[in-house]
Amino acid sequence: MNFHDRHLLRLRVNGEDHSLSDLDPRVTLLDLLRERLHLTGTKKGCNFGECGACTVHLDGRRVNACMILAVSCEGREVTTIEGLADGDALHPVQQAFIDHDGFQCGFCTPGQVMSAAALIEEGHTGSDAEIREWMSGNLCRCSAYPQIVEAVRAAAGRASQ
Amino acid sequence: MTPFVYARADSLGDTIAAGAAPDSAFLAGGTELLNWLRLGITEPTRIIDISRLDGLDQVEALPGGGLTIGALMHLNDVALHALVVRDYPVLSQAILNAASPQLRNLATIGGNLLQKTRCAYFRAEEQLPCNKRQLGSGCSALHGINDNHAIFGWTEDCVATQPSDPAVALAALDAVIVTAHRSGGRRIPAAEFHLLPDTRPEADNVLQQGELITAIELPAPAPRSAYLKVRERESYEYAIVSAAAVLEMDGQTIRRAALALGSVALRPWRLSAAEEQLAGAEIGDREALSTAIEQSFAQARPLSQNAYKIELAKTAALRAIEKAARMSS
Lengths: 161, 329
Prior knowledge:
Number of helices of chain B: 11
CATH class of the largest domain in chain A: Alpha Beta
Shape of chain A: elongated
Distance between the termini of chain A: 55 Å
Oligomer: heterodimer
Distance between the termini of chain B: 49 Å
Radius of gyration of chain B: 19 Å
Radius of gyration of chain A: 16 Å
Helix content of chain A: 25-40%
CATH architecture of the largest domain in chain A: Roll
Number of strands of chain A: 5
């Protein structure tokens, strides 16, 4: 087994291939996105996997970027909040957050939106209670939870329950 | 984090050979290991990334009944697997009550069992007296803030609890943890996997350096089983107390019961005395159920701030039994 203290990492972020050299294996995916790729939409809240502000999609699944060593993402595909819109057309979840006032300070919003987009794909939108449970990994210190649930419900195309 | 070198494992043989070296750590989901590294709880010099090992991420039916679950399966994938949902609701429920959806997409079922206690003294960023952090330094919680600490099996060296939800379900199911090691693998009963603090308070479980969990084996289906988690928030919070119940019923009569409590000791706590007395009890006879549960609380010992957990645990056990009985078989 070949152990190294510096690595070459190739991964695809928001549809663009990157090859990053001289990577310290201690760097998390979150810090790589923010510090090396300058994609600062993904937020660093607790850095302990507790707040969900760093939620991104890794090979299509929502994950906490602070809990992943970047080096372990070799060959994988990452989508961040910057990659969610289709050109100038916002993703339906982004539009729904605006329409339903799903934020106040906005710090947790990228993580909320990434989590919500995945949750809708997962099909966990059967009821408001189900939305709340499956959004529980994203904390909002402004407590915009009622509006967030409304936004997710609207983006999922379901009437109020 | 202190510096380490990293390598990605591509064969089980290489993994257990490399893992045997001191100061090596396996990386699977990473949701515990990264926090240990940040806090200095462990300081490995070599990280072996096992997340892409082949063949350890699926559910397979065992001949003669039962399932084997690959250790690298992500928690959500285990909990939502059709056979687990149908035949082992206690495990599915325990997993879905654990952590958050995004963490469950990363964390693995094998790694989950290796969680360390959530005791705030143990996890403190500034090192405080804690025999699990530094053997011989004492236990800050013994006479400190211990409202959510152990009521069973603690010693003056450590009063912490094991936080895993799935581990409680696996203990009640009499699951087996299968390991690989350079000197041969083992089959470990789930209820004996974690260690109480009476011998080596610094150790969490029976694994040796370089020993890798490869699978969890579940015995015959347990459709009448349920998990109940009591916590301060409705979701995304560790338990104050949890209870797993696995029943076999004849009509309204309990033929056999298996019960385990979580977050009351450093290992899932089987209620063996209660289980014995529950055989033959009617599910509708709350008094009989409560009397049976009482048998297992003779050894309960509260700390200065957590006597309430004894009542809470009894009630949780009762409610878990009733919940399990309502599951269709």
